[in-house]
Specification:
With 295 residues, the chain is α/β, with parallel strands linked by helices. It folds into two domains: 147 residues, HUPs (Rossmann fold, 3-Layer(aba) Sandwich); 147 residues, HUPs (Rossmann fold), CATH 3.40.50.620. Helix 3 packs across helix 5 and helix 9 crosses helix 11. The chain is elongated.
C-alpha cells in the first residue's frame, strides 16, 4: 500500500460501528482518499419462525435493510461524511464486508473495536475477528471514534518478509497524518536447548537483530526519513509491544499476520493474537498474504 486511495468503514449501526465510520472518514479525508461505508443486514439468516407476530414476512427483510441504511446514513452525517458511498448488503457480514472491499478497491477496511475489550478479553469482536480472518488487505480496528490524526505509530516487525509490508502500510498512515513512526523488533529468549548451544552469544544475537532491522527499513525505503525511528527490546514479544506502546505513548499499533488458516494461532500468529487480546489501542492488522500488489 503506497498510499491510501480508498477507505471502507464497516458498521452495524452500533456505537462501535460509529467509531469505525468516524475514524475511517477522518483518515480518508486527511489522506485525500475515497470513503465508503458498508452495512450488512443478516436478516436472511433469520428463520421465518422468528419473525415477530403481525409482521408481514414479505416486508421483513426490506424493512430491516431500510433501517440499516438509515442508521448508516445518520452515522455518515455524524462523521461529517455525508457524501460517502454507501453499500448495503444482506447476508453473512464478514464475507460481504470483504466482498465490498474488493468491489470498492479499498486499501483499508475499518472496523469498530469491542466496546468492553477487558471483559471480552479481546479488542475485536466476533464479526471483526472474522473480517480479519478473511481479509486480504489491512484492517484497522478503531478503539474509539477518532477524528484527530494519529501522532505516534508503532510498527512491530519480526524481520520476516511480512515486515516490509507492515512498515509500508504503517508509513502510509503515518505520512497521511504527519505522525512519527517507530519500528520495533523484540528479541525473544531462546528455548532452553538452543540457549545452551548458543552459550554466551547473546550480544551477537542483538547485533544481528539490529543489522536485520536496518535492512528491513532499507527494504521498505524508510532509511533517512526523519519521522522514522527504530528500537529493539528483549522479552516476550506481545508483552514488550504493549509496554513499548505505553512508554512511547503510541496511539496506533501496526502488526502483521502469518497468512490464512482456520486456527487463531496459525492465522494471526501468537504475538498478534496476544496484542489483540490484551491491547486497547487502535490496531492496524496487515495480512501476510495479499492477493493484490499493495506495495
Amino acid at each position: 500500500m503506497s498510499g491510501l486511495m480508498s477507505v471502507l468503514a464497516a458498521t452495524d449501526g452500533s456505537e462501535h460501528g460509529l467509531g469505525a465510520v468516524v475514524t475511517g472518514a477522518a483518515l480518508a479525508k486527511r489522506a485525500g482518499a475515497e470513503f465508503h461505508i458498508t452495512t450488512v443486514v443478516e436478516v436472511l439468516l433469520v428463520p421465518p419462525a422468528y419473525i415477530p407476530p403481525g409482521v408481514d414476512a414479505a416486508r421483513y427483510e426490506p424493512d430491516f435493510i431500510r433501517e440499516a441504511r438509515e442508521k448508516a446514513m445518520d452515522q455518515a452525517r455524524e462523521a461529517e461524511a455525508a457524501t460517502a458511498q454507501l453499500h448495503v448488503r444482506a447476508g453473512f457480514a464478514p464475507q460481504l464486508i470483504n466482498k465490498v472491499a474488493e468491489e470498492a478497491d479499498a486499501d483499508l477496511i475499518v472496523v469498530g473495536a469491542n466496546p468492553q475489550p477487558a471483559r471480552a478479553r479481546s479488542l475485536v469482536g466476533t464479526t471483526g475477528r472474522r473480517v480479519l480472518y478473511l481479509a486480504n488487505r489491512p484492517v484497522l480496528v478503531a478503539s474509539q471514534a477518532r477524528r484527530e490524526p494519529f501522532r505516534r505509530v508503532l510498527a512491530a516487525v519480526d524481520l520476516s518478509e511480512v515486515s516490509q509490508v507492515v512498515l509500508r502500510n504503517a508509513w502510509s498512515v503515518a505520512r497521511a497524518d504527519g505522525a512519527e513512526l517507530r519500528a520495533l523488533f523484540v528479541l525473544e529468549p531462546l528455548p532452553m536447548m538452543l540457549a545452551r548451544v548458543a552459550g554466551d552469544k547473546e550480544e551477537e544475537r542483538r547485533r544481528h537483530g539490529r543489522e536485520q532491522l536496518v535492512w528491513v527499513l532499507e527494504s521498505a525505503d524508510l532509511v533517512g526519513e526523519e519521522a522514522v525511528g527504530a528500537h529493539i527490546r528483549q522479552g516476550h514479544a506481545g508483552r514488550e509491544i504493549l509496554e513499548e506502546a505505553n512508554e512511547w505513548n503510541a496511539d496506533l499499533i501496526v502488526l502483521g499476520t502469518h497468512g490464512f488458516n482456520f486456527f487463531d494461532r496459525l492465522l494471526l500468529g501468537s504475538t498478534s493474537l496476544y496484542v489483540l487480546r490484551h491491547g486497547q489501542l487502535a490496531m492496524l492488522v496487515v495480512p501476510g498474504v495479499q492477493s493484490r500488489e499493495q506495495q
